[in-house]
Amino acid sequence: MVMSIAAAVLLMSAVVNPSIDMEGYLRAAREAAAYRESRRISEDEFARMAAEPGTIVLDARSREKYDELHIKGAVNLSFPDIAVASLAQTIPDRNTRILIYCNNNFSGAEKPFPSKIAKASLNLSTFISLYSYGYRNVYELAPLIEIGKSKLPFESSLTVH
After folding, report:
1. Is the pLDDT of residue 55 over 90?
2. Over the stretch 114-148, which tens digit does the pLDDT of each residue have?
């Protein structure tokens, strides 16, 4: 017996999981998208804000990519690890100013900053996630920057032998 797509969709919609809310996610994504438009900043503004007390630069890439190369002073909280407890531990005050960046902000360093397709950019997911958790003081590095020409300081967590 072959099930039609419509029947499969109907069957799946009957399966309820209160821990997954697609409509809530889409609603939060639309709200976050509108809010994000005034929160995208230049490299100079990012560097200025990063140097101010009480600001966290958040790197949501994998620990492996973070260790290879990251903005100096950035805190790593890998996107899959963003959850109630990890956010409470890493950024307990929801009013903390958070600066985010991702792979798609940098070119010329494909190994530590592998490109993603634009609509799957980690900045988008991270911004929506932080917004969904109630963080509103979030700013996103806007431009695509050639890493060799960046004004931002970078460091590696890897030990060279």
Report:
1. yes
2. 999 999 999 999 999 999 999 999 999 999 999 99
